[in-house]
Amino acid sequence: MEALSLLQWLIDGLIGIGLLWLAWRALFCPELFKAIVLFIAFGLLMTLAWVRLKAPDVALAEVAIGAGLTGALLLSSWAKLRGFDANKGMGAREKNSEQAEQKTKRPFFHGLYAIPLLLMAVGLGYGVLQLTPYATGLSAVVAENLDASGVSNPVTAVLLNFRAYDTLLEIAVLLLALIGIWSLGIRPSVREATPDPVLDLLTRFLTPLLLLVSAYLLWVGAHAPGGAFQAGSVLGAAGVLLILAGWRLPLSLAGLPLRITLVAGVSTFIVVAVLTMLGGAQLLAFPPSQASLIIFVLEITATLSIAAILAALFLGSRPDHSEKI
Amino acid sequence: MTLSDYLSVLFLLAGALFFLAGTVGLLRFPDVYTRLHALTKADNVGLGLIVIGLAMQAESFASVGKLLLIWLLVLLAGSSISHLIAKKALQKGVRMWRR
Amino acid sequence: METFYLALVFFLLLNLGAGMWRVLQGPTAADRMMAAQLFGTTSVAVLLLLGQVEGDSALHDVALVFALLAAVTAVAFVRRAWSEPEKEHDSK
Amino acid sequence: MSIAILYALVGIGLFCLGVYALMIHAHLLRKILALNIMGSGVFMVLLALAGRTEITPDPVPAAMVITGIVVAVSATALALALMLKINAITGRAELNDAEEK
């Protein structure tokens, strides 16, 4: 027993130190590309930390988003930034990263910044240490009402029933981010070369598997870790993979059908919210008998919308304009 | 401890050994191509042995199937990616190591 | 048995830490990305072992998604970030 | 001190590192990384404090963190697009307020 708890501590200590070290290196190493790879590694280690904190739902979301989509986003933005520098000529290529480096060489002022931050860290740490070592929070309340929620996974119950308004607003935020990107009017990048046969094969194999896993996560979310967010981000990753392999949405689908998919999640939520209010209940308070069905419908539309939005976020430019360069 | 427990411990230790070998290779080998070779040992064999070791302890066939699926996936993805990296490196003219 | 699994997890995590040296050292972008790839595979192994310790089959799902998404990141690297020539000669 | 408290302290460390980097770096990609790491730190504190039990942890913070992760990725995507736009207009991926230039 003694060896067991010692090992637990060693593992958690290693993960904690690893996280801090990776964050430090990612933020303060001179090369941008290195920083991005370190940040991807940071996301992967974060997943292990969530598992150790007994939050497999969060680990699933982190793995799909933190490790997959954020990494792909950062890598492709970095490539675009670099490509832009390269276009300006050889001299300018390293300009961006070098300027960044020069600016960090002002240790005196930066030392001054560090002092209040250290004080803040100490204060926060002291605050955390003062908290009671055991607290159950709201888990008892959730457990009491779980039967009425229509699902048996407490996290899904919170996300789609007890605090469904969070999810409503969250899908709205995703949509707003996409509208923001589209309104920037970024020129689409030039169509890439046809993929290598091996990449083609890999894509053909991975895409159906991603679809399958996404559907599985959606289904399993009712009683075990999983759910609309995880399923949506895995499905979105399938879209990202297809975009990377050079596939583009056919123009016939890029207009109205795409837009309907993008807003399906948030509009279903709003319709349900209005209906529950018309039914005399509070906003998004589902009747227990129908809760299971309502959550099912909400999750499916939310999954599709989240996936479409995430893939569109990755593409960066409006898909219906991609041919006019 | 039953016989299958011992066997599974054996497989798991062998898997861990391959991970160690992969890491050492990644650190010590002289160029991209040889490092790729080391990396794929950890990817394919190391994870494979660990999956076999754990599959012996699994309660249901469903979970054995999932374990094997994970391994096959890593196998396929790892080897394709390694191929792509090696090909790209050759195209770019990353030098091969010669004694 | 549980102690053994956890010891293995600890060992694999130490391996990860050692592999990080290659990310920092490079020299080419491919070396850094390969190290991240090894990081991913090792984490899959760690997740499977932790799943066995905690008797939580959900961790197998996490490992599965992990393997899938690591492949997507690697494809992003090969297709986008590494399309520039490594040395000074320009191909475009 | 328990494992949960350990992770909470790590989360505070991550947050402060992120704030520091956000202040001293001029390059926008670094600032975006810093913001993401700050966010991860906050998530970690939330979940660590939810894990202060022997039984299953509190699901409410977990649900909030899942929402937060998805919002963080959309914010990151928007920030990266803005960075590329700034770079295309000014030629530098930096904000030049109070510049020497």
Secondary-structure blueprint:
The complex is a heterotetramer of chains A (325), B (99), C (92) and D (101).
Chain A: H1 2-28, H2 32-52, H3 56-87, H4 95-104, H5 107-130, H6 139-145, H7 154-162, H8 164-183, H9 197-220, H10 228-244, H11 251-254, H12 256-278, H13 288-315
Helix pairs in contact in A: 1-2, 2-3, 3-10, 7-8, 8-12, 8-13, 9-10, 10-13, 12-13
Chain B: H1 3-28, H2 32-55, H3 61-92
Helix pairs in contact in B: 1-2, 2-3
Chain D: H1 3-24, H2 28-50, H3 59-90
Report on this model:
The complex is a heterotetramer of chains A (325), B (99), C (92) and D (101). Chain A is built from 13 helices and no strands. Chain A has helices at 2-28, 32-52, 56-87, 95-104, 107-130, 139-145, 154-162, 164-183, 197-220, 228-244, 251-254, 256-278, 288-315. The relative contact order of chain A is 0.10. Chain C is flat. Chain C has one domain (2-81). Helices cover 76% and strands 0% of the residues of chain D. Chain D is elongated and about 55 Å long. The model of chain D has no long low-confidence stretch (mean pLDDT 84). At the A-D interface, α1, α2, α3, α4 and α5 of A face α1, α2 and α3 of D.
Question: How many helical stretches of chain D?
Answer: 3
Radius of gyration of chain D: 17 Å
Largest sheet of chain D: none
Helix content of chain D: over 70%
Tag the structure with descriptive keywords.
heterotetramer, A: 325 residues, 2 domains, 13 helices, D: 101 residues, mainly alpha, Helix Hairpins
Task: Summarize it.
By secondary structure, chain A is mainly alpha-helical.
